[in-house]
Structure formats: structure tokens, C-alpha cells
């Protein structure tokens, strides 16, 4: 059974080419997405795989099996998005972890330490570092969400809208979901010169002028809207080092290589609802 609502007729663009064989030819597929509560019987593998994608090369630093089990232990909070019915793997998910409530769990404590270290490494994240460095962990919701690369961003507003409803219901039941802040963990990337081009002496894409800092680009367009409502936001480097050719494995049919970055966005609790409404309007205007 679908959760409460479905997004009918959402269109996902695929890379299947037309008869001409041109890279510019695409087929459009009509896809009906359904929302479900996270369910231990079906969703362990799918959510863990999406968490590995979210944490990228640093996924190996964490006990993602335990984190997935914790997400599945709170099935009335958060959503999975599927296409082929309830018993299939999720194409996207959204959940959150109460860092104050679960700080004594070793795998959550490790995530908190990791986020504290990343926040302390950059002045843009100083409010996050301050919150996580106190003697007591404040009631922060760590928002975890990810989707497969071809899943349209239009699935995002319904997930967040349902999450806000679920938090309200949980509060009415005196459950521990009264938060001061939402810390959204995400990913961004910068473009880097391809090592393949250097090795093969291929024509190189000209570097953009206007400053020494590379432009941060977004995997998830909704992150740009969240940032308008944020106390602070910004990228951070992963701890796990990769060889020089790693960026070329993520080129995704473009001239430049890709360097993925972790990304944190801190939003005060009372501003989340307005941010979610703005995301819906923004995505509608882009469609």
C-alpha cells in the first residue's frame, strides 16, 4: 500500500538514445512513484546502499548496517520512494536521527565525532562545531536522505512534507522529536581537470576565471533552497584519500573530472517548514 500520496506522471529522463545515435537524443519515461514507511522486511539493503552513496568514500568509516537498523526501527518517521511496489528496493529515502537521544550508541557517537571534526575544520561551519562541541549534545535532528541518480528532484517535497506531519504526530504522542535544529547531510562536487586528458594530450577544457576557489556544484538542487534558510552551510573534504584517477571514474559524460565533497546545512527547527514550501515552489518553477 502506498504511504499517503503518490506523484503521478513524474518524468525521469534516461540516457537511451534515439535512432540517430546522437548523444542529444533522449527518451522520456512516465514513472509513477509511491511512498512507503521504511520497513525492515524489505528495505535494509536498499537504504544501506543509499547511505553508502551518501557518505561516499567515507562510508567505510561507519557502521552503516547499525545505522540502517536504527532508521528501520522508527518506521513511522521518514519515507522510502519506490516504483515497482512495496517489496522492491527504494529509489530514494528520507529519515532522521535524534543525535541527543542516540548519542550513547557507539556508531552514532562516531558520526557525531566525524561531523564535529569536519565542522571544526572550516569557519563556515562554526555554528555546527559549537553545537556539537558542548558538554551535552543538543536536540539536533541529523537528516539523512539520498536518491538514485536518475530519480527526479520532484520526489523531495512530498518526503519532507510527510516528515513534518510525522514529527508533529510523534510530538503529540510525547515521543522525543522536539528538535532545536536540523542538520542536513548531503553531497556536492567541484570540477577538476581530467587526468585522462593530460595523459592522452586531449584538448583541455579552459579553467573558469574569477577566483582561485573552485565553484561548488550540487547533486541535489533542493540544497540551494535549504541554504537560503540556513544558519550556515558549506562543503567539506572527505577523510578517505583517493588516487589521482578517482575523479575520472565520476566524469559522467563530461569533459572535466568530478571531485565529490561532503556538505552540511544547518537549519533552525522553526524554519524547516518554510524551506520545504520554498523547495516545492522552486522545483515547480524549474519544471
UniProtKB/TrEMBL annotation:
Give me the ranges of the annotated region Disordered. Answer: 1-23
Q: What UniProt keywords apply to this chain's record, in alphabetical order?
A: Nucleus, Protein transport, Transport
Its GO CC terms are: nucleus
Extract the GO molecular function terms from the UniProt entry.
protein folding chaperone; protein-macromolecule adaptor activity
Q: Name one Pfam family in it.
A: BCCIP
- Where, subcellularly, is it found? Nucleus
Gene Ontology BP term (one): ribosomal large subunit export from nucleus
Q: Does the keyword Transcription regulation apply?
A: no
Signal sequence region: none
- Family per UniProt? Belongs to the BCP1 family.
Recorded hits in PANTHER family, A to Z, give: BRCA2 AND CDKN1A INTERACTING PROTEIN, BRCA2 AND CDKN1A-INTERACTING PROTEIN
The protein's job, in short, is:
Involved in nuclear export, actin cytoskeleton organization and vesicular transport.
What protein name does the entry list? Answer: Protein BCP1
